[in-house]
Amino acid sequence: MLKGNFFFSCFVIMVLPFLSFSQSTVDGVVMEPNGNKTIALPGANVYWMNSQIGTVTDVKGNFSIPFFGKYNTLIISYVGFESDTLDIREPRKIRHVLKPSNALDEVVVQQQRDAVEKTFFSAQNVVTINSAELLKAACCNLSESFETNPAIDVNFSDALTGTKQIQMLGLTSPYLLITQENIPMVRGASQAYGLTFTPGTWVESIQITKGAGSVVNGYESISGQINTELVKPMTDKRLFVNGYANQNGRLELNTHLNHKLTDKWSTGLYIHGNQRRQKEDGNDDGFLDAPLANQINIMNRWQYQNPETGWVSFINLRYLNDEKQVGEVDFNADNWVRLRSAPNADTPEGLALSAAEGWGSEIDTRRFDTSVKLGYVFPELPFQSIGFQASYSNHQQESYFGFNRYDINHNSVYSNLLFNSIIGDTRNKFTTGLTFAYDSYDELVYTTDFGREDVSGGAFFEYAYENLEKVSLTAGLRVDTHNRLGTFVTPRLHVRYTPWELGSLRGSFGRGRRAANIFAENQQLFGSSRQIQLMDEGGSIYGLDAEDAWNYGISFLQGFVFLNRKGNVSLDYYRTDFRNQIVVDWENPRAISFYNLDGESYANSFQVEVNHEILENVEVRMAYKYYDVATDYRSGRLQKPLQAQNRFFVNLGYETKPKENGSLWKFDYTVHTQGEQRLPNTDVNPSQFRLGDFADGYSVMNAQVTKVFSTKFEVYLGGENLSNFRQPNPILGLDDPFGENFDTSIVYAPIMGRMFYLGFRFKVQ
Amino acid sequence: MKKVVLTLVMALLTGITFAQEKNKKMTMEVDGKCDMCKTRIEKAALGVKGVKYALWDIPSHQLSLIIDERKTDPMKVKTALVAVGHDTKELKATEEAYDSVHPCCKYREDNTDDSGKHY
Lengths: 765, 119
Description:
heterodimer; A: Immunoglobulin-like; Maltoporin, Chain A; five-stranded mixed sheet; elongated; B: alpha+beta; Alpha-Beta Plaits; three-stranded antiparallel sheet; 15% strand
């Protein structure tokens, strides 16, 4: 019975195609030889020659193809078989056996990655700074990497350390999410100096996202995100040495050693050291213009990559020790520390004895970082992957500013688990995952201890749609629960639309929340005699509430071709609206106050930027920026202090054509012009310490020349602040640094005058 | 009887090899020359129901696909490609469809990779 059934079904299968006969189609079955018999060949191509009509045989080898009369040549083909051509003059049924061919059709697939990411097509407003751009301003660390890019403003944080503070959309760096390979990096205790702890040579590229950003890396970004990709052991030079020296005694040395252990494992050791022993006081005010400094920064990376199994991994270890001394030129730190640790230190005569040593400050930082990244790309499904990131850091800062003591110890754990895949096809992608973060802070402010622990967990889902032409969209949502911020929802949306060729219109909005670390973020206050006024309002962070803001933005990018060379022009407008902000109020020269926002606080920013290769090999970049950043202080609504409302920027770059051995010249020139800046109120000071309402505008020029001798060796020479513009009297009340008028926080222009530097790079592939 | 069982096993086995895969990887040659072609080709391929992933490489002219074989087959993708004016090894675009491509994409006249000349 079984036997009968089997043969019957076989018969039916064979005969069925011949029975279904139709006037307008050619039906048939394609077979392949199998010993003495033939078996069905599924997946064979059946098509009319020079037509757009074709089909594929099904599991049973059957096909059906429309017949038109126009096409008479039917081709049956399959990889590994000889193609056959049949002459078909009328609709009929066919049974065809394909002969295996000896030679397989071999297809070599070459892969080529795009070198430049096109921001024309992404939903988010992302600017990528690649390593070539980073070389334009050769010094020295991440905080100085933005000098040639108008998206980021570089300001001065205080008159002591010369630390550069970055701003985006009119808001300072705490409102930015600063990540290193997508792991939050500069936050908490490292907010003030964190950017200076990443040496410039370690940086491979920087991605700047304006506006709300993605939900994948957390809820903390408010005005944007800066992600740094570091050099990788597999792709970095085998050996790289960079030396730098400048006129006022700063010396830097960077060494990269990369080694390929197996075809899957590589490791790299990156060592950075910098030092300044020379005491520099160009403006003769008795205070150092730049700190005496000593930094050692060591990183070890391990990279694993297995294309067959789809596993990739990174393991990072980093140790940093940074010491800075600032203050009066004659200040002797050893004496000071000895006097302050004496038993009578806090008695009136002990204090007088210390004060006789002069005013000085030491800031010592030790930091340890480790992180692990693990990724798995499904080998058969390039669009699907799983990623896991975990990091731990310990940041310890011990410092004194005259009698003001500030110590912070911050332990941080962060982990993120992600899953990427598609819905239907790659036009609909999603990323989803879970985040866990733990931070413990232990602070000593003067004599008061502050400590807190923050724990948060969250889940996110981000959907990205791209129809490859006109529209793309990224919509993300995350829900977090935090022991101080509560449970809250963070939505973020980015949309791009291409109205016409080379045009790109973008819109975005999103929410961000954060716990402000008021002391770590405003350390310049310690270099003053201002009294700290903390308006405890029963909140959970220093008695204050968490910050909460919405950001909205619209931008338009248009590419063009002028004089046969490419260029682009972009316009953008962003607004950040605070629902709550920790207002940092400098408006009383004797105090600094922190309180919750009562009223409005907003930051409007408008930018227009033009990029064009104006002459052969001459690139010009120009930008104008307008900011309107205002807050309702207790004394009324005021523009943000030390913030120029109008800024103008020009960068010119010229590069000669490389010769055969790679030798060439590079020239780069940048001008920053800042309009007038509102100064914090100093009206209650004695007349000689009053600064007026506004500081005048000014320009700063930088230039650099690089001579590339070969692909192995290059030398660069540059100058900063070429017009030698300096802020007159950057330190208030410097005659009596322990008196009530002493203030180093009101800085609106460079302290350091014209400065030249020289450096070299040596690389072995 | 033994023979029958063997045949059955064979039939089943072949059945497994011919099983329609949910994520079938394949590559095919598609004519074109620039980034605009790339967008058009990938868009047309992804427009076919059942195509999950499409990546066309300019220099090699290879279109890498991942398709759900239960929903589509390569010929359907090729039909969609010729409909937007791109020739495949088997199916050729009509003059009408070919004329509809942007002038810079006229690969039949000159099929060199000129992606560098475009944005």
